[in-house]
Design goal:
The protein has 12 helices and 15 strands. The protein is an alpha/beta fold. It has 2 domains: 205 residues, Glycogen Phosphorylase B (Rossmann fold, 3-Layer(aba) Sandwich), CATH 3.40.50; 155 residues, Rossmann fold (3-Layer(aba) Sandwich).
Amino acid sequence: MSRSKVLFYVQHLLGIGHVKRTITLARSMLKKNLEVSIISGGENVPVIDDTGMTFIQLPSIKASNRKFESLIDSDGQQISNELKMLRRNKLLEVFTLTDPDILIIELYPFGRRQLEFELLPLLEKAKKLKSSVKIICSVRDILVEKNKPHRDKEMIERVKQYFDLVLVHGDPSLIPFDKTFPKSNEIINLIKYTGYVVDQEKIRNEEVAARPSEILVSSGSGAVGENLLKLAIKARPFTNAKNHLWRILVGYSISDIVFLSLKESEEKGLVVERARPDFIGLLKNCRLSISQGGYNTLMETLATKANSISVPYAGGHETEQTLRTRLLAQRGLIRQIPEEDLNLEKLIIMINLSLEEPINVKHNINISGAEKTADIISSLV
């Protein structure tokens, strides 16, 4: 008997959170004996493990800056009509060759509007086979705040026009989808909450050290964490953890020039390296985690019960990290420093407080989203 096939489209433009979450979801689907193909339009990500799935790379594009004002190609040039056509044609070709039973689109139509040049032709093609192809939207818990109400209407129209189901990877007891998308009541019959997506198997398999001692500082794998990493290095000698090992993890979207400048700070007790695939293991065994407030990092923090400080990214038009971090801090699950308040003195004070009074992470937030998503998808085929 042939395996049911899933084609999963994902595009990361700044950090790698979207593609990392997609890989985690795909890994859970593999356990349901589904055949999973991922088609990614972002830059190559060295730290992901796509074992067992088919990973297809479109010619890469990314955001030109933190405000997502335009899209650029791998050479830093504005994307051309030729590149758009090349990506669109390859995407349609992959759809035809894959012949999926399930098509999953990550984020769109709740974001990625700039990519409609390829997504609308894909959805139109899939819609013509509606009787045999289920079309699913995979979206995180919080949408970026928009100042254009007409866009919400467009999103609703696109969902009703193309999609069979909207999987919200969150827990409504922490934040319901309508908190950042008030019109969600118009598609409530299509929405299913899965819980937060975390790689539970990795967490179970990582051993816990007898006495966790490392200070782990990370910027996710986004391009915007440089200031936090630099401040943490400056803060180290003034903290009560100056004699512990500090591990600085630099995301791959941060340039080699910046990475090498941070690397020059290395000395005994201070390691600077690129982001690692065993981040969960490091998180599970650290004395303190200092990070930004991205979806994956915060959920892995909850899952590993790490003592943590979050500095959510709030540049450009981003509101997502700030809101999620604030909600978790209000529950006493993490400590936070708003990005606009971050300075050397505040970071030192917060580090010392976190070492003296570590957080005892206890919660009932649903973090079984990967398994639940796989259950839902397998039930559709």
